[in-house]
Amino acid sequence: MIRFVTIRLLRAVITVLAVMTFAFVVLRMSGDPAEVLLGPDVPQTVIDAFRKQWGLDAPLWQQYLSYIGAIFSGDFGLSMRDRSPAIQLVMERVPATLQLTIPALLLKLGIGIPAGVYAALHRDSAVDRGVIFLAILGFTIPSFVMGLVLVLIFAVTLGVLPSGGFGSWQHAILPAITISIGGIGILARFSRSAMTEVLGQPYIRTASAKGVKWRDVVRGHALPNAAVPIVTIVGFMVGSLIAGAVVVETIFSWPGIGRLLIVSVSNRDLAVVQCILLLIAAVMVVSNLIVDLLYGWLDPRLRA
Amino acid sequence: MANLVEIRDLRVAFDGVPVLHGVDLEVAPGEALGLVGESGCGKSVTWLAALGLLPSKASVTGRVQLGETDLTGAPQSALETVRGGRIAMIFQDPSSALNPVLKIGRQLCEALRLHRGLTGAAAKTEALRLMDLVGIPDARGRFRLYPHEFSGGQCQRLMIAMALAGEPDLLIADEPTTALDATIQAQILDLLARLRAEMNMATVFISHDLGAVAQVCERVCVMYAGRIVEQGSVGQLFEHPRHPYTRGLFDALPRLFGPRTALVPIPGTVPDPRNLPGGCAFQPRCAHAQPFCQSALPDLLPQRDGRKLACAYPLPERGQGGERQAAREGVFQ
To answer: Is B152 in the same domain as B178?
Structure first.
């Protein structure tokens, strides 16, 4: 068990390092922050001074080493726009994003899993077909289309909800639903197929043959077995709590991480972008780690 | 003595395709009945249908009388008390028949709680006794293990222990040794025979292994394409099979003694239930078939020696000459 956790932890660290390196290299190869931030008409001396000030004149490998070194001492760099610490800028935005993604996650779990399980229990019924149809619709329609459709219906036509912005809890409803719909569809499909497979297993027949009530067969014998594939998908969803709202935040002018990321990328605000990518990678890696540990708890055969 | 279970005209169809064509079967208390036949002949379906364990797309008609209740029309709650309580069932592949994510102890205690109302320490004590009874060494130490930590043979022992938890009157063993090694098969058969004797529990032994059936059973039903074709005591059928299909099953067995002879397989395969041949379902594969066999389906009729037989041109009775073979005695007797 200790060996298992150690290996997984090491792997997690390596993954995060790889993401950091990749982000660092790609950002520096794809545009010069000096030109973007200062504009096209500044004299070369100003650009050189800016480069020197931010260390952009050093060779790439030197910049990389000092960046990694700084990260390990807890320094995530300063924003090139207003010289405030990048980590602070990012962390200020985290609560706003979570205000959308956590309710969305709860909707995905609360609707997707029961719908999928119900469909599996009533296979080939009208409800089952309806669930499959809606699920496919849900995860094939891109979130920006879905968001605009919802705005059209609930904000423009019915006028019951705000079309964008940040403030009251009503503002969060449309973006949260928009984020959740694709996930509901995916979870419904996965839960249905996982449950369908489990219900066909011999041990389910054993449980029925033993006289267990069907309700308890489903709860006590089928669901624990179907949990492993479902948990995998839920793990991805938890991992995208930070990164999962980029498009939707932009549509609804929601001041979260997603919008900060887009603004920072277009401004070449290197420290901020790197900080966000690091945070996204860390959340994803941690949730994967939790999923791996959950596997062992859910399925004794997977215990190392 | 009244029969424990009486099955009358049991018919099963999947999506409109009939797979069981009116089976009549009875099991006396304490009796050991064998049900033999090739795969797909309806042996398992008969009992899954009787216990209401078939998927909902299966349509089941007929009567399955257990004491006062007819199980085919019984509500779910009544079936739940019968299943595992009065009639328990064990299955072919024991390793996948136990729930992989639940501890063995918990699975045993669940059956004890359902049918004997035992919980907590009492249930654990009884579960340990059952594990001992079926020959699981170090039951106490292995109570908290998962199914994958047991061998196939031990899993079947655990399945048997779980089946015994409800103190059933009838144990249906559906090919209980098919997935096991030969030596383990013998141990499981011994165990089943011993338990039946000790607990005075009727056993239905579903198998295509005639040797195993001979070892465990008193009476045998041979099934073919969803019907019973011959039924009698183990002695009658094994020493002197009269249905050509029964005979074919024996000819396909290797002999332990005497000169080495080539095995005689039954030609062809079990017919597709969607496309049954006319007349007797076995006639296309039968060496004794006559033109008559293609036109009429023989009924299962009692014979002089007590067996039942569904064949127009059966093999001759013991001591009879070959000339009688042409008479349709199975039908007109």
So the answer is: yes
Domains and CATH numbers, chain A: 86-302 (1.10.3720.10)
Cα angle B57, B270, A200; round to 5: 35
Q: Does B167 reach chain A within 8 Å, measured CB to CB?
A: no
Choose the final residue of a domain: B165, B200, B217.
Answer: B217
Considering CB atoms only, which of A201, A211, A214 is closest to B114? A211
Based on the fold, state whether residues B252 and B188 are members of the same structural domain: no
pLDDT digits over B95-133, tens only?
899 999 999 999 999 999 999 999 999 999 999 999 999
Q: Is residue B85 less than 8 Å (CB to CB) from chain A?
A: yes
Could you list the residue range(s) of the whole structural domain that residue B170 is in? 5-217
pTM of the complete model:
0.84
Chain B residue numbers touching A125 (CB-CB < 8 A):
none
Same-domain status, B132 and B33: yes
ipTM score for this prediction: 0.86
CB of B97 less than 8 A from some CB of A: yes
Handedness of CA B65, B69, B71, B72 (dihedral sign): positive
Find all residues with CB under 8 Å of A73, minimum gap 6, and list them: none
Indicate the residue among B217, B246, B279 that finishes a domain. Answer: B217
The answer to whether B232 and B48 have CB atoms below 8 angstroms apart is no
